[in-house]
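Regression check, 3-methyl-2-oxobutanoic acid case 281:
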Amino acid sequence: MAKNTVLTLKQKVDEGRKVTMVTSYDYTMAALTEAAGIDMILVGDSLGMTMMGYDSTLPVTMDDMVHHTRCVTRATDNTFVVADMPFMSYQQDLATALENAGRLMKEGGAQAVKLEGGVRCVEQIRAMVEAGIPVVGHLGLTPQSVNAFGGFKVQGRSVETARQLVEDALAIEAAGAFCIVLECVPSNLATLITERLTSAFTIGIGAGNGCDGQVLVVQDMLGMTAGGFKPKMVRRFASLGETIVDAFHAYDDAIQSGDFPAAAESYKDLDAEVIDQLRAE
Ligand code: KIV
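Current build output:
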């Protein structure tokens, strides 16, 4: 498998092939993702929920993101790794935004950073791109704005909000974003945005199949979510949650019955005389 770069990803899109992306937050999952030849890994701030048990992405810190990005990039040679900029790591001022984006690249080893927002993020994106940091934008249902949206809702349903999304996409493309994630927007709007962009490609999640690529949260797509909750936009490609719980039950049963560990799973016994001597002592 060849190394994925900004150029090879764009080339894939230009050749009419779809770009694949999943989230990963740790070494083991990143190694499996790379083994499968997935093009891009997103170290998403969704790790706040999937790895840390928060009920939103808002509490995630820069240190959390650097730590998990480093775990992922230790496993990847060819997969293109994008790290999320967490809530309030890029909104305050340009210098802080640039410093934090730099940490994800220098300390985390990411190949690009992702931030949420359109026109309001143009200055930050331009500064990062000028500093040599590839930027992925994120529009639509941007989870860091869940409180402003009043919940996790499909975005761009009215003419005004749809027009705003098109303007946001064009603005961040002009600022230098090479890729834009479109989350939870009507499929035909995502297709229109994809068609209007000239240099950036789109990755959809809950945005139909007219985007240039797709992303899913890895625990969702592998069926590892507790309680079985499945958002409409998710397809489960495996039921690993059930498989794992079944394996834990089998482990428990094997221990209780004395079947595990068997002789083949144990180390060679000491000579009987040694044990006898130890007993006598
Ligand atoms: O944090 C994340 O996992 C994301 C995806 C949902 C696109 O931003």
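Comparison notes: The longest strand covers residues 135-140. The chain has two domains: 6-238, 243-280. No diff flagged against the previous build.
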